[in-house]
């Protein structure tokens, strides 16, 4: 029985011309791109956060302080490499490597652009692609978290262990929401291969029709990368620095590297799945019959979108405080996951109606909008819940003696200060002079 | 990945690459499986399972079951084993299980059941026969996920739904069994704050411990505006343990300091130190100079001079 009426090609990108040295060039280029991007990202983050806090940021090493992160990397390299005595040696050393290696894997399936001529070979600007590429990205991310979890556990110390436990809970809850938000893209694109998803966004980028899924993805991607406001596994205020407390020198640097590569990863996934991948934004894409969607130009659009999302990361960090742990979990389980589930079901129903009944998408959307409006109107008819009656206060403002306890005390709600001595004296003088106008004694009632 | 299709040729022979992969991953998996059995720490056993699972995923992918391989990692390695680790870590960092048998003779029963399972497996696997290989083009008509979808939602849709219902029931059962009825209204941050205000308790943070010229530690009470030591400035734990420094001593010292201050303020400093203060003369001097700072005329001398000059 054929359920899908329209069969789509599993993978759009054509890798048939690739030779082994093309593969090697692409793989090396990806690693070099990621490592240099991390150096730039660290500088970028420090500079942007600094500007948001009205200070110059790094500006000593190199032009605009560009070499600051290189200097930091050198410092980390030559620092003393400590292995704590209580550590579980093997796991302790392997954990940062797991984090970095898994972070490096994701970009293998990210399309930077369409087919180009690379040294005379016609090949896509993408290392590889297969029918379940996005699931592969999720798999790499979920294995990468083992680096954090095992790093925290193997340190044999309390704070890292707490960080690791938090990290597991965070991953279990936020990966669900993340995966569910991606499902609606799969449904509309009809594929899980990254190149196919980019091709499906020729007419409209998915972030517009799938706005709720996009919002859920943006929130959960911040949670997935342990960034503020979701950096509870390394909350320096409570857990020193969480899972990496006992790490120093290069092993610490590996965790650092993994975190920034992961930021690039989730930004690249958001770009590819929701923001049209390497496709040029609308006014540019119309120029000269799509000239800017061919050749090497798309790499520029891809990088621009990637760095816009990186800026969003920094922006969020610069403006939002860290969540309390229970609130964080509540958001994940009680808001994001149910919302993502409802949205997936809605998208599935709409897509099913479209495919099986042959209805226009527009009429389906109108019907849905009508249902939403009717639901909204009905919600106005539901009587409001009665507010609990506040405790009765004695009527009228009451005077009190502010010096009763020996110290001057400000009035409580419902109390009022007696007129000041000066005003009392003025009132007395006025009464003595028997003037017709009685001086006004202003009384300020505090509270409600 | 495009090199991997046609791993299983029409003839049923595996390619060299797949054979190499299998003979590399096979020993790794066997070692990891043995590690699961013999590891002392529970977390190490869990790690061994993860190694087995990821290796298995590689083998699936090599057999062109890409979807199965990736889902194996996402679901089992990424979610189920992560949950296992979570529980193991919550239970304890190195909790080694006690080897005392709680059920009598369970070891022998377990051994017997294990041998029985082994016999059954050997019998079934030994007699299993395979049909002729159909090749990948025959097995997966479209790409891999579409083929899997056709099988799950076509051929096995009933079994799939039943398993889904079973899992949902199990999850609901766990929820019902662990559910506790709330007997009292929930006390949150706002309720606590309101109660504190209504009870007239301290709204501000408690005062910090005292800082003295010769003693700066958690165990010394600070002095209040009235010069009396503040009990609440010493952490409660220290007070309960009785590790608080003697408040009386500080009170007495304060009295002496206050006496000195009143003399300084009232008239020129006395020629002879007052009685009792002689022993603690340096303390008194330091304390007087400290407490003298809240006098009215002790701003920086330069500032006063400037004001006078203008």
UniProtKB/TrEMBL annotation, chain A:
Enzyme class: translocase
Listed GO MF terms: NADH dehydrogenase activity; oxidoreductase activity, acting on NAD(P)H, quinone or similar compound as acceptor; quinone binding
One Gene Ontology term from the biological process aspect of the record: aerobic respiration
Cellular localization per UniProt: Cell membrane; Membrane
Primary location class: membrane
Alphabetical UniProt keywords: Cell membrane, Membrane, NAD, Quinone, Translocase, Transmembrane, Transmembrane helix, Ubiquinone
Topology with respect to the bilayer: Multi-pass membrane protein
EC id: 7.1.1.-
Gene Ontology terms: cellular component: plasma membrane
Top-rank lineage group of the source organism: Bacteria
Pfam families, sorted: NADHdh
Catalytic activity line of the entry: a quinone + NADH + 5 H(+)(in) = a quinol + NAD(+) + 4 H(+)(out)
Polar residues bias spans: 434-448
Coiled-coil intervals, chain numbering: none
Stretches for region Disordered: 386-448
Residue ranges with Pro residues bias: 388-397, 408-421
TM ranges: 20-44, 90-110, 130-150, 171-191, 203-222, 252-275, 295-315, 335-353, 365-383
PANTHER family tied to this protein: NADH DEHYDROGENASE SUBUNIT 1, NADH-UBIQUINONE OXIDOREDUCTASE CHAIN 1
Role played: NDH-1 shuttles electrons from NADH, via FMN and iron-sulfur (Fe-S) centers, to quinones in the respiratory chain. The immediate electron acceptor for the enzyme in this species is believed to be ubiquinone. Couples the redox reaction to proton translocation (for every two electrons transferred, four hydrogen ions are translocated across the cytoplasmic membrane), and thus conserves the redox energy in a proton gradient. This subunit may bind ubiquinone.
Subunit structure: NDH-1 is composed of 14 different subunits. Subunits NuoA, H, J, K, L, M, N constitute the membrane sector of the complex.
Family assignment from sequence similarity: Belongs to the complex I subunit 1 family.
The protein's name: NADH-quinone oxidoreductase subunit H
Gene this chain is encoded by: nuoH
TrEMBL record, chain B:
Keyword Amino-acid biosynthesis: no
Annotated Pfam families: Oxidored_q3
InterPro entries according to UniProt: NADH_UbQ/plastoQ_OxRdtase_su6, Nuo/plastoQ_OxRdtase_6_NuoJ
Predominant localisation class: membrane
Coiled coil (residue ranges): none
EC number(s) recorded for this UniProt protein: 7.1.1.-
Uppermost EC category: translocase
GO function term, MF aspect, one: NADH dehydrogenase (ubiquinone) activity
Membrane topology of this protein: Multi-pass membrane protein
Catalytic activity entry: a quinone + NADH + 5 H(+)(in) = a quinol + NAD(+) + 4 H(+)(out)
Name this polypeptide is given: NADH-quinone oxidoreductase subunit J
Organism (species): Cellulomonas xylanilytica
Highest classification ranks of the organism: Bacteria, Bacillati, Actinomycetota, Actinomycetes, Micrococcales
């Amino acid at each position: 029985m054929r359920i899908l009426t329209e069969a789509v090609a599993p993978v759009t990108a054509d890798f048939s011309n690739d030779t082994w040295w093309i593969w090697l060039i692409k793989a090396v280029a990806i690693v070099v791109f990621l490592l240099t991007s991390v150096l730039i990202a660290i500088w970028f983050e420090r500079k942007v956060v600094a500007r948001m806090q009205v200070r110059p940021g790094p500006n000593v090493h190199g032009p605009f302080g560009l070499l600051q992160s290189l200097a930091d990397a050198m410092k980390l390299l030559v620092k003393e490499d400590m292995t704590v005595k209580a550590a579980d040696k093997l796991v302790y050393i392997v954990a940062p490597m797991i984090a970095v290696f898994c972070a490096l894997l994701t970009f293998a399936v990210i399309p930077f652009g369409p087919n180009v001529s690379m040294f005379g070979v016609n090949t896509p600007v993408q290392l590889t692609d297969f029918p379940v590429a996005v699931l592969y990205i999720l798999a790499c991310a979920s294995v990468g978290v083992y680096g954090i979890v095992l790093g925290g556990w193997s340190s044999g110390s309390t704070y890292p262990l707490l960080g690791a436990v938090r990290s597991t809970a965070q991953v279990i809850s936020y990966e669900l929401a993340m995966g569910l938000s991606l499902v609606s893209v799969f449904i509309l694109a009809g594929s899980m291969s990254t190149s196919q998803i980019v091709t499906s966004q020729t007419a409209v980028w998915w972030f517009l029709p799938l706005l709720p899924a996009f919002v859920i993805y943006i929130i959960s991607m911040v949670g997935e990368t342990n960034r503020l406001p979701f950096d509870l596994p390394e909350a320096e205020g409570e857990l020193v620095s969480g899972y990496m407390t006992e790490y120093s020198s290069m092993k610490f640097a590996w965790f650092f590297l993994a975190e920034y590569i992961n930021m690039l990863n989730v930004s690249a996934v958001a770009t590819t799945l929701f923001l049209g991948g390497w496709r040029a934004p609308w006014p540019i894409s119309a120029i000269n019959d799509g000239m800017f969607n061919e050749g090497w130009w798309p790499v520029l659009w891809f990088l621009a979108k990637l760095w816009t999302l990186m800026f969003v990361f920094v922006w969020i960090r610069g403006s939002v405080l860290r969540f309390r742990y229970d609130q964080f979990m509540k958001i994940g389980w009680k808001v994001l996951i149910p919302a993502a589930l409802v949205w997936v079901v809605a998208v599935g129903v709409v897509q099913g109606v479209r495919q099986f009944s042959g209805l226009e998408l527009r009429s389906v959307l109108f019907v849905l909008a009508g249902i939403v409006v009717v639901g909204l109107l009905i919600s106005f008819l539901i009587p409001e819940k009665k507010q609990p009656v506040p405790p009765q206060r004695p009527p009228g403002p009451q005077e009190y003696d502010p010096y009763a306890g020996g110290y001057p005390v400000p009035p409580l709600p419902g109390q009022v200060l007696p007129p000041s001595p000066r005003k009392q004296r003025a009132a007395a003088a006025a009464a003595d002079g028997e003037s017709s106008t009685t001086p006004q004694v202003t009384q300020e009632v505090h509270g409600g | 990945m495009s090199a991997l299709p046609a791993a299983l040729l029409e003839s049923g022979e595996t390619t060299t690459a797949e054979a190499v992969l299998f003979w590399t991953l096979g020993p790794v998996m066997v070692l990891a499986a043995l590690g699961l059995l013999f590891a002392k720490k529970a977390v190490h056993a869990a790690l061994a399972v993860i190694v087995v699972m990821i290796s298995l995923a590689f083998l699936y992918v090599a057999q062109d079951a890409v979807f199965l391989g990736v889902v194996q990692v996402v679901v089992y390695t990424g979610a189920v084993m992560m949950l296992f680790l979570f529980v193991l870590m919550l239970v304890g960092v190195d909790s080694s299980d006690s080897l005392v048998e709680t059920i009598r003779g369970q070891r022998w029963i377990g051994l017997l059941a294990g041998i029985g399972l082994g016999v059954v497996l050997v019998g079934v696997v030994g007699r299993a026969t395979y049909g002729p290989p159909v090749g990948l083009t025959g097995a997966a008509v479209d790409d891999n996920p579409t083929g899997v979808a056709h099988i799950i939602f076509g051929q096995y849709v009933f079994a799939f739904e039943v398993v889904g219902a079973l899992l949902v029931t199990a999850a609901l059962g766990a929820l019902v069994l662990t559910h506790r009825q709330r007997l009292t209204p929930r006390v949150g941050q706002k309720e606590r704050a309101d109660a504190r205000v209504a009870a007239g308790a301290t709204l501000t943070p408690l005062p910090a411990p005292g800082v003295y010229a010769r003693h700066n530690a958690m165990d010394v009470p600070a002095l209040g505006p009235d010069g009396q030591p503040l009990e609440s400035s010493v952490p409660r734990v220290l007070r309960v343990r009785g590790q608080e420094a003697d408040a009386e001593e500080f009170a007495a010292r304060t009295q002496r300091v206050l006496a000195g201050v009143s003399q300084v303020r009232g008239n020129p400093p006395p020629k002879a130190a007052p009685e009792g203060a002689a022993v603690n003369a340096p303390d008194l001097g330091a304390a007087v100079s400290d407490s003298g700072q809240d006098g009215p005329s002790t701003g920086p001398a330069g500032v006063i001079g400037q004001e006078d000059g203008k």
